[in-house]
């Protein structure tokens, strides 16, 4: 099954320590938000990532399915 890519944006600007929690994602920080881009093999992996974010008490603002980087 092909990978699916998602961008998950949460409130706040992640510092280096928080970014390290998501070393399996591409992390982009803005002035008031942080966006993770992750390629996951299935919905269970996406659910696990969302639970990790919630476990850190981060406020999820937006989840978007995007085209995987490996796609043409």
Number of strands: 4
User: What is the ordering of alpha helices and beta strands?
Assistant: EHEEHE
Count of all domains: 1
Distance between the termini: 17 Å
Bin the helical content: 25-40%
Low-confidence stretches: none
Going by helix content, strand content and strand pairing, the class is alpha+beta
Strand content: 35-45%
Principal-axis shape equals globular
Average residue-wise pLDDT: 91
Biggest sheet record: 4 strands, antiparallel
Cross-sheet strand order for the largest sheet: 2-3-1-4
Q: Rg from C-alpha positions?
A: 12 Å
How many helices? The count is 2
Descriptive notes:
The protein has 72 residues and is of the alpha+beta class. It has one domain. Helices cover 25% and strands 38% of the residues. It has two helices and four strands; from the N terminus they run βαββαβ. It has helices spanning 16-20, 43-55, and strands at 4-11, 26-29, 33-40, 60-66. Strands 2-3-1-4 form a four-stranded antiparallel β-sheet, with helices on one face. Strand 2 and strand 3 form a beta hairpin. The two termini are 17 Å apart. The mean pLDDT is 91.
